Every structure is written in C-alpha cells, then in structure tokens.
Amino acid sequence: MADYKNSRTHESGEIFSFISYSFFLTLPNKIHYLFCDVQKRMVILRQYSRLSAYLGSSLISQTLKIRVRRANIINDTLLQLELHTDGMENFNKQLHVEFEGEEGVDEGGLSKEFFMIIVEKMLTPDHGVFIYEQESRLFWFNMHSFESESQYRLIGIILGLAINNSCILNISFPRFIYKKLLGYKAVFQDMHQLYPVFYSSLKSLLEYEGNVEEDLILTFTVEYSDVFGIRHTHELKDDQPGLVVTNENRKEYVDLYTDWLLNTSVTEQFNAFRCGFDLVCSSTPIKFLFNAEELELLICGKESLELEELEKTARYDGFTENCQTIKDFWAIVSELSADERKKFLVFFTGCDRVPVGGLADLKMSLVRNGDKMDSLPTAHTCFNVILLPDYNNKVLLKERLLKAISYSEGFGLL
User: Which among 37, 69, 27, 53 is positioned nearest to 357, based on CA atoms?
Assistant: First the structure.
C-alpha cells in the first residue's frame, strides 16, 4: 500500500516507486497494486455519487447495476451495458447484479454466478460468436459469425469487469489473445497454442531440405470454407496472385499465412473485443504492469485443484478442526473426482478456477448450521463460507454434500 501511494506521487517525479519498474515486481505484488488502484477509483466514484445526491443534482448510482433474466442473460446484459458505454467511469464502479424473479442481495456471490453463466453462454459454439478448436481445446473468434460487433465488445467488457470485481473466469482462449490485448501482434511461434498440427506442418516446411517449389507445389493462396461449406480463396499477396512458394520465399509465406490466420482474418471481431476490454481497463495500469502470461492468470486463474490447500487455511465457526464432522468432511473432499472438485469449488466460490495465489488464498470458512439431518449444506459464495449441518454421520454427510454441489446453480448461492 505504501508503494502504491508513492507511485501516485512518483508521477510528479518526487518519490521513487517500484511500480514504475514493474519488471522488478512479483505477480502477487502487481495484483495487489491493481486492486488498490481499482478500489480507489470505486471509492472516488461512490463519494462523487453521494456528493451529487447531497447537492441535489441528478441522482447517480453508486454501483453498476444490471438486472438480468437467466434465460436471456446475453441480450439483457448487452442492452443494459450499452447504456453505459458513453460514460466509461461507470465501468469502474462496483458491479451489482440482480436475477429477475429471484431473491438475493449481491455481496459478490451473484456477480460470480453472473460471470460464470454469461461466459458459458457466449462461448457455446451454437451461439456463433466463437468456434471451438478440438485439437487445442481452445476457443477462437468465428470469422464467419453473423453476430454483430456488439457481441464481441460485450465479452471484452465482461473480461474487464471480472478484473475490476476480482472474479476469475473459466474461459479458454489461446494465450496470445492476451498478448494482442496488450498491443502486440500474434506471430508464427504463437500458432502452436491454437493450431498445433498446422503449426507443425508449417515448421516442417521451413525445415524442408528438398526443393519446395517442385516437391510441395504450394502457392500464396489460402483456400477455406465458410459455415455453409462454400469455398473461398484469399491471396496472401494481392499484387502477386498465385505466387509459387519456393525455398527462398517460404519464410515470407509462413509469416503472411500466420498474420492472416491469427490477425487479419478476425480483425473486426478482435477490434470489437479489444474495444470492450479497453472501455473498462484503459484507465487502469494493466497494460504497463502485466505481460500476456500474467494477464491470463489474472483473468483465468489456475486450473490445478489441490483441495488439500484449503484445509491448511480453513476457519471454523461452531466447529473445531478435531470435530468428527470436520474430519469426515475433509476425508470426503479428498476423495472427490476431478469433475466433483470443480463442482465443489463452484459451490462455495462461484467459480471453478483457482486464484493466482492458490486455494489457500480463499480462506474458506466452515460454519456449523444446526444439526438437522434433512438439510443440505449451503454456501455464501461472496465470502467463501459453507454452512454445514452437524450430521455426525459420514455416509449422510457425503450424500448431502454431493447433492448440494451437483445442484448449486441458483441454489445455495447467496
């Protein structure tokens, strides 16, 4: 915090701050600085809203409020966020989500659930905004999408809002997309992340020792099919259509092919996506603090689910770590399958990804919630709290816990 204050003074050249030399900083330090910056902006906007209300001027909301229907979450979110695009400062406010027809006050848990649901909906291939590449198990922009640019701008806004509201997203993009968000083009070495087989083929072309022109018979023309199966062609060199690939120009061919595939073929989609991200994050220090790998971790967290880390920092209310119910609880958790572990994490945090600092950073709390045998465990996802009845029966505890984590969406999430 002290260095954050120094960094604000350093901008005027008065005090040294490590923030201006971010390559010295660890990732947790960078995230802490970003958190301080975001929180300061939110406090200033809340104070401004209160001052406006006190002075009797127009009423300004202290939070970014959106009210959505689960069945129509994309369109509802799009319509409401579009109203705020003229005032970028609105995106720096604390997000407040309401699900229509449902009770619940958003103390962070509903926001987590909102992010989880909307990302899942937008990444669904049937939605047509992104395509899923089976060989890499990653999502990429659909160059043939019929959806408007506003859909891509929305997912960019969602990424930015998730950062500002400290929510981890379960989103599988190639890492170079974060490199592009930071202002760099994707290059040939990045292709292996998304298209590993094609990358290997092009790499073999560069290393081929025979006569490329006579043996491989390639040209600077790309052929591909759209969603209707209609064939299209694209000239990598407009001024030389049908140019033959030779030993001498094969590197240029690979570079131009890479640039078309990862950059120019999805220019409209990516620019809209970046525009949405910048609407939220352009006023934050993200671009000078983080590299692509760090930005990916900031947004997506880690995938490793070593739930044993939770037990080391868990806190208890009404229980002690030596209670039989607690011992049974951790024994059951340690036996969960990979899929069940993800569901368990979603159940009490609202997300199946792990923060950069690891599961120990979550500081989960287990609170005794009576001893009714017919009650299910519930959770406050905003505080990472599990309300656990004192079953005093391992078989019953396992049955109730598995049922709770399997049906947690919209239930037990407060």
Answer: 27
Residues in the chain: 414
The catalytically annotated residue of 281, 300, 351, 382 is 382
Residues 6+ apart with CB under 8 A from 204: none
Inter-helix orientation angle 149-164/267-281, to 10°: 30
Q: Give the count of beta carbons closer than 10 Å to the beta carbon of residue 144.
A: 15
Q: Could you tell me whether strands 94-99 and 130-133 are parallel, antiparallel, or unpaired per DSSP bridges? A: unpaired
For this structure, is 351 an active site residue? Answer: no
Close Cβ partners of 355 (under 8 Å, ≥ 6 residues apart):
168, 301, 302, 361, 362
Give mean pLDDT, residues 294-303: 88
pTM: predicted TM-score of the whole model, two decimal places: 0.80
The neighbour count for residue 301, using CB atoms within 10 Å, is 20
Using one digit for the tens of pLDDT, what is the confidence trace for 77-102?
998 888 776 666 788 888 889 998 88
131-160 tens-digit pLDDT: 999 999 999 999 988 888 999 999 999 999
